[in-house]
């Protein structure tokens, strides 16, 4: 039965395979006995391997154990969880924060607390899968609006039954397109139509905004958007997620959010690593400066070569290819030329928009990026993308 289903996936070039590496993540990695340039990680600031971050994880693991033992409501909260939450709340300038084991779980857990049966959710067409699943699980009616189109959101708000509880759901920085949600417009609509806005800033945290507080800082919307979620597994180099917001919301989540209540708390080492990463991010601001310099260098290089990029304004630089088969062929050629940047295909992105999702980090050197551009040109010609 599974063989038949796998064959069907293969017929549409939609088979996924795990790629085994033999080194830590970083600007280059060891794959099949050779060094390749990695251009697909979300470790935007290189903090997953930063000595201070690794040390914090080791120390917390030695002190508090490899695992948390149970859900925090069952076996108590360890200091690394509390320390991380107060560090996040201070950084994000909110009353409080709550850690989740992953961003996926946070989205499943928060949306259902914000809205339920009888409510209406308006979600961006390109929202992350975990947001979509959270919307489905909530039991609310779920409508999709055109990507980043606040006029469409307004049209849907006008049409709803008066007084119906409504939640607008969006990524801050879109994971597969690298562009931003129109947060000022969405926040204004939420206010005008008495709706709630929920922002997933998984990719914006550490990357966007003057001090890395994310997409909400980028738009100077902190007072208008009182809570949001983000992840610890991307620019913060660790694993897990957080919701930052008013104390009442956090207390409500502790009391009702099933993916918080019914899962083992994240490992203490991961919490300590993320807290250390927040510190490094703030005392090494040059990392973000290098990230943006690399973003400019690489996006200009790709455009000069003639690649079609999305309207990205971030270190996520997707190259639009077309069919899944073309994207796979391109990714294979890239790997043959020493660059790892896998094809992203449906259902992760809409049909016909398969792509190579390139991400640059602060840790890529100019030489590595220039070497990668040569690989993109050669692979693009061989795969017929250029
Ligand atoms: N939201 C967005 C926008 C994401 O890109 C991701 C991860 N790819 C998640 C949530 C899920 O986060 P996690 O990996 O921590 O489960």
TrEMBL record:
E.C. designation(s): 2.3.1.47
Sorted UniProt keywords: Acyltransferase, Biotin biosynthesis, Pyridoxal phosphate, Transferase
Span of domain Aminotransferase class I/classII large: 35-375
Keyword Transferase on entry: yes
Cofactor: pyridoxal 5'-phosphate
Protein's UniProt keywords contain Magnesium: no
Enzyme class: transferase
UniProt-listed InterPro entries: Aminotrans_II_pyridoxalP_BS, Aminotransferase_I/II_large, AON_synthase_class-II, AONS_Archaea/Proteobacteria, PyrdxlP-dep_Trfase, PyrdxlP-dep_Trfase_major, PyrdxlP-dep_Trfase_small
Modified residues (N6-(pyridoxal phosphate)lysine): 234
Protein family according to the UniProt entry: Belongs to the class-II pyridoxal-phosphate-dependent aminotransferase family. BioF subfamily.
UniProt subunit comment: Homodimer.
Protein name per Swiss-Prot or TrEMBL: 8-amino-7-ketopelargonate synthase
Source organism of this protein record: Nitrospira moscoviensis
């Amino acid at each position: 039965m599974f063989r038949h289903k796998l064959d069907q996936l293969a017929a549409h070039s939609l088979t996924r395979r795990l790629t085994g590496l033999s080194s830590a993540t970083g600007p280059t990695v060891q794959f099949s006995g050779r060094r390749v340039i990695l251009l697909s990680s979300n470790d935007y600031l290189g903090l997953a391997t930063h000595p201070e971050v690794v040390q914090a994880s080791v120390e917390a693991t030695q002190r508090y154990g490899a695992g948390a033992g149970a859900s925090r409501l069952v076996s108590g909260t360890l200091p690394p969880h509390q320390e991380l939450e107060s560090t996040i709340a201070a950084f994000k300038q909110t009353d409080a924060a709550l850690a989740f084991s992953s961003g996926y779980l946070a989205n499943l857990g928060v949306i259902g607390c914000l809205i339920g049966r009888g409510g209406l959710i308006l979600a961006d067409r390109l929202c992350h899968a975990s947001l979509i699943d959270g919307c489905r699980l909530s039991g609310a009616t779920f409508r999709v609006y055109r990507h980043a189109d606040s006029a469409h959101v307004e049209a849907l708000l006008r049409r709803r039954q008066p007084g119906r509880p409504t939640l607008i759901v969006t990524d801050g920085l879109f994971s597969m397109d690298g562009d931003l949600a129109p947060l000022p417009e969405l926040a204004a609509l939420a206010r005008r139509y008495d709706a709630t806005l929920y922002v997933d800033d998984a990719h914006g945290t550490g990357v966007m905004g003057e001090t890395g507080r994310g997409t909400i800082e980028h738009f100077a919307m902190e007072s208008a958007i009182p809570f949001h979620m983000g992840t610890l597994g991307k620019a913060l180099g660790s694993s897990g997620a957080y919701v930052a917001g008013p104390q009442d919301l956090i207390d409500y989540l502790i009391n009702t959010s099933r993916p918080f209540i019914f899962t083992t708390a994240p490992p203490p080492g991961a919490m300590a690593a993320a807290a250390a990463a927040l510190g490094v991010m703030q005392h090494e601001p040059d990392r973000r400066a290098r990230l943006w310099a690399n973003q400019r260098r690489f996006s200009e290089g790709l455009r000069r070569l003639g690649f079609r990029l999305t309207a990205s304004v971030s270190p996520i630089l997707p190259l639009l290819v077309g069919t899944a088969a073309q994207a796979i062929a391109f990714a294979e050629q890239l790997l043959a030329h020493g660059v790892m940047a896998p094809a992203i295909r449906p259902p992760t992105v809409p049909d016909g928009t398969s792509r190579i999702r390139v991400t640059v980090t602060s840790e890529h050197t100019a030489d590595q990026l220039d070497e990668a551009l040569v690989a993109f040109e050669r692979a693009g010609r061989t795969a017929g993308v250029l």
